[in-house]
UniProtKB/TrEMBL annotation:
The protein, known as: Glutamyl-tRNA(Gln) amidotransferase subunit A
Region Disordered, annotated ranges: 84-108, 182-203
Catalytic activity: L-glutamyl-tRNA(Gln) + L-glutamine + ATP + H2O = L-glutaminyl-tRNA(Gln) + L-glutamate + ADP + phosphate + H(+)
Organism: Natronorubrum sulfidifaciens JCM 14089
Entry-linked HAMAP family: GatA (MF_00120)
Species lineage: Archaea, Methanobacteriati, Methanobacteriota, Stenosarchaea group, Halobacteria
Keyword Transmembrane helix (UniProt): no
Record field: compositional bias (Basic and acidic residues): 182-193
Domain of life: Archaea
NCBIfam families from the UniProt entry: gatA (TIGR00132)
Summary of subunit composition and partner proteins: Heterotrimer of A, B and C subunits.
The enzyme's E.C. designation: 6.3.5.7
Residues of the active site: 28 (charge relay system), 103 (charge relay system), 127 (acyl-ester intermediate)
One of the GO BP terms on file: translation
């Protein structure tokens, strides 16, 4: 039943040997693959074939991996369920009849269904961690700057990172080893220390003896009861292995969803301006003047959620409103960062439920965008603060997967991998 997981099924062979030889990888369809169409889940790019590989794809090939397809996603990464895809929705292999989460739902589903050993997604506000949690697999959102964004089609460029999915923490960590590291084509990247481990994969020791865990009380408020219960069972398990926990407070996260959506939509309105029917993708072929052709191309090419965000983002950046919305959101972003710094000064890692709710039923959330935005409450603060986080399976509630999120200091991925592997 792979037909709803991939937008394009195509085998791309890598080098004969390397650390990922024999490993199959699903790649989210907003990551450029030379000669293989890259749609971003949009009609706008239905026939767009990139002339170059993203840096992460070059690294996969060099490591000997075999790419098996381009996976389904919310249109341009805008969504939490993969249902805004122009190509239709994806079923959740771990909970049939439910969404796989989003926006990297196809990538998580590919791993959960055994269609690929590992997968790449992108996370602007939770799009790796949410589908990992909903599909019962592991997903890592790296520190901003750890992984090159060269060849990733931009949605909210100051927020997003490419990151790995795996069935186990070690599998995901091994993929992170391959894609991480500075890239001369992305000036925001840098080399990072690994807490003394020789690789991220080596950090998956499961040793949490002495680990201090801060639990932000704000990230449990309003969460589903079964999710909260599963979360505390997992914390008790970590305690039994020698970790300790204490409550911490992040007062600013109350404003994180609002701030995130103002920033993400503003950046989206600018990043998506390039889709004009001239340089990329769909061309409405409208007669008449260029303004009409431009408008018609975008009217046909973009779905409702993308249009909503371009309109709101353009409004938020417009003269007269810029300070009221965009600048205010940037202030909130700085406050969120500061709150995390303070909490992480007193704990090795922070822990919360990845998603406050179990996976929605297919079709359930589409009519109410606000409800969908609020589901991102626990993931978006991490992107605002540029920090790394991992989602690991914590158990189930009513037969539906629940994910636990660990958040660490900048470039503290090895620590998150160690903590996450203790729950396996
Ligand atoms: N659900 C969030 C959004 O729609 C996050 C998406 C993402 O991380 N790409 O913006």
């Amino acid at each position: 039943m792979a037909d709803d997981i991939f937008i394009t099924e195509e085998t791309i062979e890598g080098a004969d040997d390397g650390p990922l030889a024999g490993t199959t990888v699903a790649v989210k369809d907003n990551i450029s693959t030379e000669g293989v169409r890259t749609t971003c889940g949009s009609r706008m790019l239905e026939e767009y074939v990139p002339p170059y590989d993203a840096t992460v794809v070059t690294r996969l090939k060099e490591a000997g991996a075999t790419i098996v397809g381009k996976s389904n996603m919310d249109e341009f990464g805008m969504g939490t369920t993969t249902e805004t895809s122009y190509f239709g929705s994806t079923d959740n292999p771990a909970a049939p009849g439910h969404v796989p989460g989003g926006s990297s739902g196809g990538s998580a589903a590919a791993v959960a269904a055994g269609e690929a050993d590992v997968a790449l997604g992108s996370d602007t506000g939770g799009s790796i961690r949410c589908p990992a949690a909903f599909c019962g697999v592991v997903g890592i959102k790296p520190t901003y700057g750890l992984v090159s964004r060269y060849g990733l089609v931009a949605y909210g460029n100051s927020l997003e990172q490419i990151g790995p999915f795996g069935e186990t923490v070690e599998d995901a960590a091994q993929l992170l080893d391959v894609i991480a590291g500075s890239d001369e084509r992305d000036a925001t990247t840098r080399e990072a220390p690994t807490d003394g481990d020789s690789s991220y994969a080596d950090a998956a020791t499961g040793d949490v003896d002495g680990l201090t865990i801060g639990v932000p009380t704000e990230l449990l408020e309003g969460a589903d009861e079964g999710v909260v219960e599963t979360f505390w069972d997992a914390i008790a398990d970590l305690e039994a292995q020698g970790a300790t926990y204490h409550d911490v407070s992040l007062p600013s996260v109350e404003h994180a969803v609002e701030a995130y959506y103002v920033i993400a939509m503003s950046e989206a309105s600018s990043n998506l301006a390039r889709f004009d029917g001239v340089r990329y993708g769909h061309d409405a072929d409208a007669d008449g003047n260029w303004n009409d052709a431009f408008a018609q191309t975008r009217e046909d090419g973009f779905g409702d959620e993308v249009k909503r965000r371009i309109l709101l983002g353009t409004y938020a950046l417009s003269a007269g409103y810029h300070d009221k919305y965009y600048k205010k959101a940037q202030d909130a972003r700085a406050w969120v960062k500061q709150d995390f710094d303070e909490a992480l000064a007193e704990a090795d890692v922070l822990a919360s439920p990845t998603m406050p709710v179990p996976p929605f039923e297919l079709g359930e959330s589409l009519d109410d965008p606000l409800q969908m935005y609020l589901a991102d409450a626990n993931t978006v603060p991490v992107n605002l603060a540029d920090l790394p986080a991992i989602s690991v399976p914590a158990g189930e509630t009513d037969g539906l997967p629940v994910g636990l999120q660990f958040i660490g200091p900048a470039f503290g991925e090895a620590r998150l991998i160690r903590a996450g592997s203790a729950l396996e």
